[in-house]
Amino acid sequence: MVDSGMRVVIADDAVLLREGLVRLLNEHGHEVVAAVGDGEALVEAIVTHRPDVSIVDVRMPPSHTDEGLRAAVEARRRVPRTPILVLSQYVEVSYADDLLATVRPTGTSSGGGIGYLLKDRVSAIDEFLDAVNRVAAGGTVLDPEVVGQLLVRRRRDDPLRQLTPREREVLGLMAEGRSNTAIARALVVSDGAVEKHVRNIFTKLCLPPDEEQHRRVLAVLAYLRA
Q1: Residue 162 — left, alpha, or beta (φ > 0 → left; ψ -120 to 50 → alpha)?
Q2: CA distance 224 to 211
Q3: In what order do the strands lie in the sheet with 31-36?
Q4: Tell me: the pLDDT tens digits for 6-30?
Q5: Is 10:38 a contact under the CB 8 Å cutoff?
Q6: Between the CA of residue 79 and those of 109, 138, 152, 163, 220, what are the distances in Å?
Q7: pLDDT at 151
Q8: Residue 12: which region, alpha, beta or left (left: phi > 0; alpha: psi -120 to 50)?
Q9: N or C: which end of the chain has fewer CB within 10 A?
Q10: Interatomic CA distance for residues 31 and 18, integer angstroms
């Protein structure tokens, strides 16, 4: 487990914060192998130095929007699994989603340590250093405020949120490949009751009239994604 003597890359266009991070990490026995101020330099530094962890600001020149995040994603594409801890001034859920997408098993950038923290957390030095260490060791660290907003958005975007508990139960049995008759037997209800539940599911999931099996497949896919 990584805990000391890490090789670190820092990317932040704010000189004071960047130099403050360099000093903090050096004082705790880590080596900052590169401290840069833009996304292009970040990618180059990670490819060149292969650090144990990189600490990256989301917003960097030239537009100060998401250059740091895009550079981090590109760096993980070119150096798979390279650990990256992203710092942001505000909670930006879409950025957290983009970053977390690089953890999922979808290509060469999957896996590896990932973190997303608000910059305010840097002042809690022990907690910040612990987060850096956990990301370097391959873990995932998310700011509590980010987690809260992600959960709120997940609930809002959940296509199954309109289903009743019984309709969710029916959809779960559909996902197991059961026919309406088999579902009726499992729930001890009539075939007609199941057919009504299935129609309601199709309506609430916005699946227009179509070939029955096709709609069942789409409904099950929605269930599995959720």
Answers
A1: alpha
A2: 20
A3: 31-36, 7-11, 53-57, 84-88, 114-118, 140-142
A4: 999 999 999 999 999 999 999 999 9
A5: no
A6: 8, 14, 32, 43, 36
A7: 54
A8: beta
A9: N
A10: 14
Which residue's structure tokens are 């009539």? 190
Lowest-confidence region among 16-25, 43-52, 63-72, 152-161: 152-161
What is the per-residue DSSP string for the chain?
---SS-EEEEE-S-HHHHHHHHHHHHHTT-EEEEEESSHHHHHHHHHHH--SEEEEES--TTTTSSHHHHHHHHHHHHSTT--EEEEESS--HHHHHHHHHTTSSSSTT-SS-EEEEEGGGGGSHHHHHHHHHHHHTT-EEE-HHHHHHHHHHHHHH-TTTTS-HHHHHHHHHHHTT--HHHHHHHHT--HHHHHHHHHHHHHHTT--S--HHHHHHHHHHHHHH-
All structural domains of the chain, each given as residue ranges with its CATH number in brackets, are 7-156 (3.40.50.2300), 165-225 (1.10.10.10)
C-alpha triplet 142, 146, 151: angle, nearest 5°: 105
